[in-house]
Amino acid sequence: MDGAAVLERVRARFGAGVVDAHDHRGDHTAIVARDAVLSVLAWCRDEPELAFDMLTDLTAVDYLRYPGREDGPRFDVVYHLYSIPHNHRLRIKVRVEEDDAVVPTAVGVWPIANWFEREVWDMFGVRFEGHPDLRRLLMYEEFVGHPLRKDYPIERRQPLIGPGA
Amino acid sequence: MADTARREFMLGEGAGTGGGSQNLKLNLGPSHPAMHGIIRITAELDGEVIVNADVEIGYLHRAFEKDCEVGGYNNAIPYTDRLNYVSPLINNFGYCSAVEKLLGIDVTERCKYIRVVMSEISRICDHLTCVGATAMELGAFTAFLYMIKAREFLWELVEDVTGARLTISYGRVGGVKADLPAGFAEKVRHALKQTREVLDEVHRLLTGNRIFMDRMEGIGALSRAETIAYAITGPMLRAVGVPYDVRRVQPYYVYDRLEFEIPTQKAGDNYARYLVRMAEMEQSMRIVEQALATIPGGPINVDFEGRAIDPAAYVDRGKQGKTEGLLLVPITLSPNLEGQRRAELSGLNVSDKRITLPPKENTYGSIEGLMNHFMLIMDGYGIRPPPGEAYFAVEGANGELGFYVVSDGSDRPYRVRCRPPCLPPMAALHRMIEGEMVADLVPTFGSVNMIGGELDR
Amino acid sequence: MGVGTFFTSQLDAAIGWARKYSIFQYPFITACCGMEYMAVACSHYDIDRFGAGLPRFSPRQADVLFVVGTISHKMAPVLKRVYDQMTEPKWVVAFGVCTCTGGFYNNYATVQGIDTIIPVDIYIPGCPPRPESVLDGLMKLQDKIAAQVQRY
Question: CB-CB: which of B62, B81, B145 is closest to C105?
Fold first, then answer.
């Protein structure tokens, strides 16, 4: 199934749950509502015609300084799905506001979401509701803030020992 | 009561001396001889069996994704070298292709072949290092010495082409830094012959070796369903019998025109991963040989009317002051200032003045070239993809290496995300080692081929 | 110069000579430079020629600490601890530009040179340094060891 048909299936099944969809450079993207994301992901995995058995990647983007998105929802949580039997891809996005940066966890759907979500929490400060063990993945526990946020200065160091500690 | 004293020493005071037993916590890493990379495993042991393991990573986090947002699109390339530093060329090309996809351009035919050749050489280096290091940690130091010897021959090739052994920064958005040097095919033939000899020797030393197999066979196995659920790709997925390879299922560059096999195994244990890697090296060598036999040459630049134009003639026209229409003529990049070598460097990069730097002789020789150069280098100018996002995956040595690039229309990437092929197997490492002996951790960790730069970014 | 002085200086020279050819190194490998470290340790460049062929993976058995690769702030306390565990006399080699100055990683995560945490004897710049420059650095370290220059 090609990307457009996949998008069509998702839209037909979830209707208003799919807020928007687009296709840029052949990457088909569905933007879904936060309440619907978990059922969309689980359905994408289980529906035999889609069979997205692999969560290739899960990340986030901070749109704080993106032209046109300055006061829109700040974060996009991005899921990249791939289906081994059908060899097609789909990108799913969820938009969340800064003061309500919570997304339901996908650990129950794919176990790999555990680490990916820990990384997103570490780097962006987006919480995943229901995550069994939401610790930082890359930085240390003493670190304050979330470094990949656009308002975290790249040179703000928080050393554990040595000068400045 | 010597026993009690020992228990207290191992388990701490109040460990209880009576009935019931208590598991021992063992901390491995971050600096540990068996960890050829820095991770920390807190294992809970019952006797010698690991019952529970917590893997902690991040000791080599050096802010790759944040660094990419600071400079222009080409400035991120040196950082990509240092993601998977055992096969940096694949990282380079993966990132460049993601940006090219975002720009909506296609690289030239010759460049695609060069990328294929260099990627495969890099893949062989990676597998050599991985298998060699695994064997060394099991005590087979000879195999390690042999494989590093072979890698050294391949690194000489890489150095010939890129000018560096390891951190090569060879890829460019829209092409590569420089063409293959003269006599490259001959050198490749020599190096591959050496590599094949080494692989033969290692096969005789390890494959079927009782000691080696006892440590590898049936150890660290992961089921097919679990491998997929953990999004593990590359040799580890092929070791459970799934012939998933990005080069085959979603071919990029010219992989669809080359003949090669996807080696698979069924067992999914360390030994199966070893066999897959060994077989893949042979396939990579096949690809290199085929690609070098069919690589196209000759100038393919065209002027604005579609006629082929010689770069030397271009410069001459500019020097004579006949600059009318010249700015519209696409030209190609030369990595050096030696004007005589221009001819052999033609046809390498995308003929798009908004992306590819002009030849250095043009930069220094004509005002158009100088302006073109400035427009690409100056702050606030440079390569400017239209707003949007793109994900591009290549087959890295450890699996699917994806780059997700978001552009806001400016000259800097708004966000670069690297999908590290190492991270899923590390997330599943606890599933592989739980229930096995402490000593089995070493070959399992070796067969995962964790590369810190890529895992922690 | 009394006899005693003559004797001790000659003894020092003898010990220095012996030490410089029996370097037991602790390779604290974290990153890319480790690949070049492997190349140096293997047959082509063969660090064994300089009497430094045997890595010791316990700080208590090693006398030269090779810090190979970027040190992040998360890793810094570990490095300090390994250094503290080594017994005197000990030397430290900063292998690669990340350990010398931080290199081109100037961001929230990386230490800007390990000499902000532990003392360093020899700096080997390069990203990563070629094996030839590693061997050059090693020979300079040997000169320093032979001269019996000690910090304590």
Answer: B62
pLDDT at residue B298, rounded to an integer: 45
Does residue B249 have a pLDDT over 70?
A: yes
For residue C152, name the pLDDT band (cuts at 50, 70, 90). Answer: very low
Average pLDDT over residues B251-267: 90
CATH no. for A3-100: 3.30.460.80
Say what the pLDDT of residue B360 is.
63
Residues of C in contact with B86 (CB under 8 A): 35
Contacts with B81 from chain C: Cβ below 8 Å: 32
Q: Do B369 and A5 meet the contact criterion of CB atoms below 8 Å apart?
A: no
Residue C14 inside a domain? The answer is: no
CB proximity B58 to A under 8 Å: yes
pLDDT of residue B14: 53
pLDDT of residue B435: 87
Tokens (6 digits) for B361: 């002789």
Q: Which amino acid is at B110?
A: R
Specify if C13 maps to a domain: no
CB contact under 8 A, B388 and A61: no
The phi, psi pair for C27, rounded to 5°, reads -80, 105
Residue (of B226, B39, A134) closest to C75 by Cα position: B39
pLDDT of residue C120: 92
CB-closest option in B228, B391, B409 to A54: B228
What is d(CA B294, CA B213) in angstroms, rounded to the nearest whole number? 40
What residues pair up with C34 in beta bridges, in sequence order? none
For residue B4, name the pLDDT band (cuts at 50, 70, 90): low
Which range of residues forms the domain containing residue C89? 24-47+57-146
**Could you give the CA distance from residue B163 to residue B146 in angstroms, rounded to a whole number?**
24
Chain B residues with CB-CB distance to A148 below 8 A:
65-66
User: What is the mean pLDDT of the segment spanning C88-113?
Assistant: 90
Which residues in chain B have their CB less than 8 angstroms from residue C74's CB?
58-59, 61
In a mutational test of the B interface, the residue from A45, A54, A83, A120 whose CB has the highest number of chain B CBs within 10 Å is A54
In angstroms, rounded to a whole number, what is the distance separating the alpha carbons of residues C24 and C11?
A: 21
Q: How many domains does chain C have?
A: 1
Are B82 and C32 inside 8 Å of each other by CB? yes
Chains in contact with C, where contact means 3 or more Cβ–Cβ distances below 8 Å, are A, B
pTM: 0.86
Q: What is the CATH number of the domain that holds C42?
A: 3.40.50.12280
Query: What is the least distance, in Å, from the CA of B167 to any CA of chain C?
Result: 7
Mean pLDDT of chain A: 89
- Closest by alpha carbon to B349, among B185, B106, B160? B106
Tell me whether residues C108 and A163 touch, CB distance under 8 A.
Answer: no
Q: Given the DSSP bridges, would you call strands C64-68 and C25-29 parallel, antiparallel or unpaired?
A: parallel
Residue C151 lies in a domain: no
Q: Which domains, from first to last, does chain B contain?
A: 2-56 (no CATH), 107-297+425-456 (1.10.645.10)
Domain ranges of chain A: 3-100
User: By the CB < 8 Å criterion, does B102 face chain A?
Assistant: yes
Contact predicate B224/B240, CB 8 Å: yes
DSSP for chain C? --HHHHHHHHHHHHHHHHHHT---EEEEE-STHHHHHHHHHSTTT-GGGGT---B-SSGGG-SEEEEES--BTTTHHHHHHHHHHSPSS-EEEEESHHHHT-TT--STTB-S-GGGTS--SEEE-SSSPPHHHHHHHHHHHHHHHHTT----
